Amino acid sequence: MTADVEARAKEDFGADQRLETAPMSPAEMITALQNYDVVLASLGDMFSADIFAAAGGDIRCKLLANFGVGYNHIDIAAAEAAGVAVTNTPGAVTDATADIALTLMLMSARRAGEGERILRAGQWNGWHPVELLGTHMSGKHIGVVGMGRIGQAIARRCHFGFGMRVSYLARSDKTLEFPATRAADLVSLAAEVDFLVVAVPGGAETYHLIDEQVLAAMRPEAFLINIARGEVVEEAALIAALQAGNIAGAGLDVYEFEPKVPEALKALENVTLLPHLGTAAQEVRSDMGQMALDNIKAFCAGQDLPNLVVAR
Known about the structure:
Blueprint: H1 3-13, H2 26-35, E1 38-41, H3 49-55, E2 63-66, H4 76-81, E3 85-87, H5 94-109, H6 112-120, E4 141-145, H7 149-162, E5 165-169, E6 181-182, H8 186-192, E7 195-198, H9 212-217, E8 223-226, H10 235-244, E9 249-252, H11 263-266, E10 271-273, H12 282-300, E11 308-309
Parallel strand pairs: 1-2, 2-3, 4-5, 4-7, 5-6, 7-8, 8-9, 9-10
Antiparallel strand pairs: 3-11
């Protein structure tokens, strides 16, 4: 955690700090559930139904305060059954994640990653009129899959900043401050846009939502951008589409088997790859941590949890 979050956690709650940055092992998660009243968990800590079952009747923990808005690594139903509440940190991550989506869009469209690799390798011979020609993003058509806080922040930037036409896929119509069209289905949305941006939560409902059929519907000039969760995109199908040139390119901040990134994906020039930087800004990570601690503070005071997550 950032220094201010660590300091508050120790001062206000007498927190024990785990120094390793790798995800907790199954044994560590079971021990944490058995030995602590509250566990501040993070993205890679896979609190599955099996973990809760293995902890058995010895679970002392009453709150999993998740550090992040996404909670697909926690089995919410299993947590509830074990008497463990789960909270997250929505809102704090919205703008930073939207900014990364625009970063990926621009880098992919303008071949920025490819250009930097050429320059750093000493292979750039100077400007000429048809070198590294990319796609002009202004005025293009964006399709946002998932029009929640982050999806709306992405669309807002695209409309007001780049004059882009906005379409989206969501369960219901959204009231927005800019013109946008709700698509009938994912395949028809994929078929008509220049940029298909994935901004849905992870989990069973969205697993491989972007599959071979969706990628086949996209135009050869279109780009896929994923800032959601890696498993939302069927990675093997995406690699095949990129290798065949069926789509112009992709920009990814998350991966299906993170942190493993396939060599076939890394070998492609028409994909921009970032190491899960969505919320990687000092202020944002601090705000996330403070929000997680606010949830813990409410729990300790016996108050309603500000950001309680419930099973659907």
